[in-house]
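*** Protein under study ***
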Amino acid sequence: MSENKNVKAYICFFTAIICFAYFLIMEFLNPAIIAFHFLWGIAGLFFMSAGLFLKSKKKKIISKKVKTVFYILFGLAFLTAAFNLYRINSFETLEEECEYVIILGGGIKSDGTLTSMPMERIKTAASYLEKYPDAKAIVTGGTLPPLKYSEAPELKNQLEKLGIKSERILAEDKALDTIENFKYSIKLIQQDSRCSQEEALNKKIAVVTSSFHLSRAKKISALLGLKNICLVEAKVPFVFIPNVYAREICSWLKLDLRILYNKASSGGKKLL
């Protein structure tokens, strides 16, 4: 029995080391004041504490009821994660000529420069805009506290550096999440095209974002009434995949809860 507990303890220590190492890698490659990868550090502390608990000679006995509750919660978390992973990977890309290209932001550093993933989105968008010279870009992203910089101006700046003319770029610097990205972008399309909201919702629009984000972006755009969306995939560096997929699983859960809350509070009339 004690040998079995020692094996479990060493597994916890090994997992803790992996979590701490991955946290440090993410912090080096993608530094930010507010970032999901800090949870890998917290996970490391959790597994280290669990390992120390299992190695302790004075450990308390955990009741069967507590263990049962833990296993039930773990099972539910696993099933939720598996279902959301399926949704994350359920998308179809389609690149064709559109009137507008919405480029979703994805992180800015404390010095106002972009992190690696939004830079990949910018490069992908620039290639698309070069291929379809009549399309206009919409860069979107506001200022998340405690940062001093909004993302949209830097996205525009980087697009211009890649050869896209300023007059082809519309900037929206208020949005704090993907839902607001689309809401404010719809308003910009109305203003730029001088059309009604219904006409704006029916325009053919390309959405450029990272592969893990495409499915949720499609879901949100549909809930907001956008009818003709083409998904354009920006690649994600391999090292970021565990972090972004874990974050996206949580983002899908947050979206589901928001939809349920809005339905309940509006009598089923409002989804977002």
Summary: The mean pLDDT is 90.
